[in-house]
Design a protein that fits this description.
single chain, alpha+beta, Aminopeptidase, 9 strands, globular, binds coenzyme A
């Protein structure tokens, strides 16, 4: 099995459009803003993501973030979003990394590869520790983080969601 994590770029729009449409718009706290866009809107959205990755054109309450796509044997299977730093809102809800694996590719261990490779990108950006949050009842996500070496540092009830949130910390020096 060959795998590769690549930053999302507009050059890949054609091969990624259908893939992005298979990922739900919102699922367990992981949002996909590209779901339901036309091809032209998708291209504009990727351009915006490229700006945000460079810290440009950000709204006042947003942080710079980079979106990555995991390819397994050249097929896109999952995507992650790495926030370069946290603001007060993300410290409570969001954390550094949001990710999802497309439904048709779940159950093959790809989320663990996606998270590990995204953590390596975080390390390259000097982010340490990396915080990753999941709803406590999102069993596959919690197992993913535990398998990749995350330490459970907090479990709190989140009023807005009405659900328990688990916060995992990753020491990128140990990757
Ligand atoms: C959570 C998610 C990323 C997991 O992706 P995946 O590629 O199917 O997961 P994996 O195959 O890598 O499995 C990860 C772990 O969960 C376990 N798992 C997978 N599916 C499971 C299921 N339906 N029930 C229980 N455990 C499950 C696996 O056995 C594995 O645990 P292990 O390391 O102890 O063996 C995927 O379900 C998803 O995209 N969900 C929607 C978005 C989301 O919840 N994102 C996380 C919050 S940011």
């Amino acid at each position: 099995m060959k795998y590769e994590l690549q930053p999302l770029t507009v050059a890949d729009a054609d091969k990624l459009y259908d893939f992005y449409q298979t990922i739900p718009a919102a699922e367990n706290g992981a949002g996909n803003k590209a779901h339901g866009l036309t091809k032209e809107q998708f291209i504009d959205w990727i351009k915006q993501e490229e700006y945000w990755s460079r810290g440009l054109n950000l709204r006042a309450d947003w942080v710079a973030a980079t979106t990555y796509v995991l390819y397994v044997d050249d097929v896109p299977v999952g995507r992650s979003n790495l926030r370069h730093y946290l603001n007060a809102a993300l410290e409570q809800d969001g954390g550094h990394i949001g990710l999802s694996v497309a439904p048709q590719h779940r159950g093959h261990g790809y989320s663990k590869i996606l998270l590990r490779e995204t953590l390596k990108c975080a390390k390259e950006k000097g982010i340490n520790p990396v915080l990753v949050f999941h709803f406590a009842d999102n069993i596959p996500a919690c197992k993913m983080s535990e398998s990749v070496g995350g330490k459970l540092v907090e479990e709190t009830f989140h009023e807005k969601h009405g659900r328990l949130i688990r916060k995992y910390a990753f020491d990128t020096d140990n990757l």
